Amino acid sequence: MKTTAFLAVFYCFLSALTDAATVKIMERRTPDQVLLVINANSLISQAVAADYASQRQVTNIVRIQCEDSAVSTKNETIALADYSRMIENPIRDYLATHTNINFIVLTKGIPIRITGAALGSCDEHSREPRNIRGHPSVDSYLAALDYTNFPNALKIDIAGSGAIGCAYSNRYWNATEPFSHAKFGGYLVTRLDGYTEADAKTLVKRSLAAERDLTEILTRGNVLLDVEPIFGLGNKATQPGPITSTNILTESAYSEFNADLRHANDVLVSRDIPVELDLTTKFIGSRSNLLGYFSWGSNDERSWESNDFYSTNAYLSLYFAPGAVSDTAVSTSARTFLPTHGGQSLIVDLIAHGVTGVKGYTDEPLLQAIASPTIVLERYTAGFTLAESFYAASHFVAWEDVVIGDPLCSPYFERLKAQ
User: Does an H or E element contain 169, and which?
Assistant: First the structure.
């Protein structure tokens, strides 16, 4: 009870910081803070990494030896023992002598999911008694490196939507200062991925284009926030809400995500960022030059009562301007980065349509894990990096999360610096 009471007070304090004046970012994050990871057994990983290193002048590079390139569905998942030996241990060895690293970039060809871990989610009917065997994303598992060195690092037991598992409470959640490994622990891990090598390479090109041409880009598009009102509009004054317990027994109310979308709209309006807040039951498509996109994705199909079904064609009619960021409240939106059929909507389609940064989930994360639209957009438009914006908006690490994009991307930095 004492722990729960402390958490409630502590996280309510953090939640209040969301509407406080964000710390002004005085200096850009630099390439020497980035560690680039290459699967030496993957030609596509080598190509994507070489392009990123050249574009961003990154010199901290680790070559790992995954036995197979993750260019087939079976190779997108790796067993825990193989992950530890082939991925985590070489990265740990490098980090031990390079204490300036804050960001880790993975490349297409590196597995996206671990099987057999103590952390991460799994189907509640498939777990072994007293021995949860989760399926966390590789990315989020790496993001929690060294959390065991922090006595106050909290583990959260999670259950809901047919899933059960355990994750760390993200120590950087709702932070209003630049990230540092030394202070917060862990690392901000992003990935350069997509259907194709070209899609993965284009992510950094879009990042650089946004930093160069933001003023002109802002005149051509807007951020789309697509609410599904059938789920309830919620109280936007309470969102983004904190996690107040180490034992989550149910998924958060759907109305809370709608409330967060509405709060995000207020933030953007106050900053003169063009925004479209749609409060109808219709799933919105046919938009181009989007600066950002947050919606229910294929979960919007529950609006059958109004006959405004989710439409794959509408989802695939969304196109993005350089610098655009996105997340969708979809459980398995990052279950694969390869061509597939059926299932829930995928973020890989948004990458193919021009998004610069996007968050998704390899397995069931619960709604609590979806990035807060308010925090992502508030931080990003205040000059924080893409990686900082998504991680500040995310409650958990060592969970199901995947953040796609160049971690250094910060197109609003110069705009805020000039004010």
Answer: strand 163-169
* pLDDT one-digit tens code per residue, 39-95: 999 999 999 999 999 999 999 999 999 988 999 999 999 999 999 999 999 999 999
- Give residue-wise pLDDT tens across range 182-201: 999 999 999 999 999 999 99
E strand or H helix that includes residue 35: strand 34-39
One-letter amino acid for residue 98 of the chain: H
Q: Give the tens place of pLDDT for each residue, 284-307.
A: 999 999 999 999 999 996 644 555
Reference 120, options 402, 372, 358, 407; nearest CA is 402
Q: Angle at which helices 197-217 and 43-56 pack, to 10 degrees?
A: 30
Residue 246 token pair: 């180490």
Tokens of 265: 């709209």
Q: How confident is the model at residue 325 (pLDDT cuts 50, 70, 90)?
A: very high
Cβ-Cβ contacts under 8 Å for 350 (sequence gap 6 or more) = 293, 318, 320, 326, 358
What residues contact residue 237 under an 8 Å CB cut-off, 6+ apart? Answer: 263
Collapsing DSSP to helix, strand or coil, 376 comes out as helix
How many Å apart are CA 5 and CA 16, to the nearest integer? 17
**Quick one: 41 exposed, middle or buried, by C-beta within 10 A (0-12, 13-18, 19+)?**
middle
> Which domains are delineated in the chain?
2-192 (no CATH), 197-394 (3.40.50)
Q: Can you tell me the distance from the alpha carbon of 328 to that of 137, in angstroms, rounded to the nearest whole number?
A: 17
**CA dist 199 → 232, 270, 292, 337, 356 (Å):** 36, 34, 18, 11, 10
The CA distance from 165 to 160, in Å, is 9
Q: Is the pTM of this model over 0.85?
A: yes
